[in-house]
Amino acid sequence: MLIKELCELAHKTAVEKGFWNCPFFDGGTCAHPDEFEGVTEISSDYCNNKCKHNQWGKRNNGELIALMHSELSEALEALRQKDRTKNNVGEELADCCIRIFDYCGAKNIDLENEIINKMEINKKRPNKHNKRF
Predict the structure, then answer these.
(1) Residue 39, φ and ψ in degrees, nearest 5
(2) What is the pLDDT of residues 88-123, one digit of tens each?
(3) If you ran DSSP here, which 8-state letter would residue 56 be given?
(4) Does pLDDT of 25 surpass 60?
(5) Where are the domains of the chain?
(6) What is the C-alpha to C-alpha distance for residues 86 and 82, in angstroms, rounded to an integer?
(7) CA distances from 78 to 59, 67, 91, 95, 96 (A)
């Protein structure tokens, strides 16, 4: 499977599982505290058209990147555990990739091309990119 296909599949699955739904719209009400002070019932059309709470929600880039980072932190914690049978480092790294693929699928980022281009750039860089570590 190509990286592009993995990105599309990860995003499709995340959408199907509700991760890109508007966090304030539950199908009958919209309770966004900033935009609907005192209002308890908002139609989906109003929510979608006025508030830009579309089918992919209103998730911000910082939140999404923080979630990627959290999976790396979980991988680090898995490494730190004495009993690694309960904490699979590979599974946490896979979770991080899935989060990255989902993001790229949602934002139409050609991750495969970005990886290829970056690897070419890295080939031309000096040893350790002129850093100590």
Answers:
(1) -100, 135
(2) 899 999 999 999 999 999 899 999 999 999 999 999
(3) T
(4) no
(5) 1-20+59-133, 21-58
(6) 9
(7) 28, 17, 10, 13, 14
The values of phi and psi at residue 25, to 5°, are -110, 120
Q: Please tell me the distance from the alpha carbon of residue 82 to that of residue 120, in angstroms, as a whole number.
A: 38
**60-94 pLDDT, tens digit each:** 888 899 999 999 999 999 889 877 666 689 999 99
Residues 6+ positions from 15 with CB-CB distance below 8 Å: 55, 56
Total number of residues shown for the chain? 133
Q: Taking phi first (over 0 means left), then psi (-120 to 50 degrees means alpha), and beta for anything else, what does residue 98 get?
A: alpha
CA distance 12 to 101: 10
pLDDT of amino acid 33: 47
Give the per-residue pLDDT at 26. Answer: 54
- C-alpha–C-alpha distance, residues 106 and 121, integer Å: 26
